[in-house]
Amino acid sequence: MNIEEVRGYCLSLPNVTECFPFDDVSLVFKVEGKMFLLLPLDAIEPKITLKCNADYIEVLRQQYLSVEEAFHFNKKYWNSIYLERDMQDEEILYWIRHSYGEVIGKLPLKLRNKYKNIDYEGNK
Fold this sequence. Notes:
By secondary structure, this protein is of the alpha+beta class. It has helices at 3-12, 54-63, 89-105, 109-112, and strands at 16-19, 26-31, 34-40, 47-51, 67-69, 78-82. The protein has one domain (3-115): Aspartate Aminotransferase, domain 1.
């Protein structure tokens, strides 16, 4: 999966906006003004940084060599996934949806209700 495919997929999710943060070397994707994915444009190896539920973090890191803890955030549960390593495209898309869902799940109920019919976890 390449950066442009990730970007297109993120923008296809409902109510997602794209912006440059303070450093101008990354793209930030937000839903309802809350960041769910960072796409560094200056990385030597393409990667995305996203949120992951605490229950899944260790499993994800043990299962994939391509997943690393992201230390540049002061918040918990951020991880970087290298796009050209061992994870399949479908799995990368799943984790993007998971991160999106993590943010939606923490929105105030009034905002969260807009998303109740959206399957952002990738369930079938």
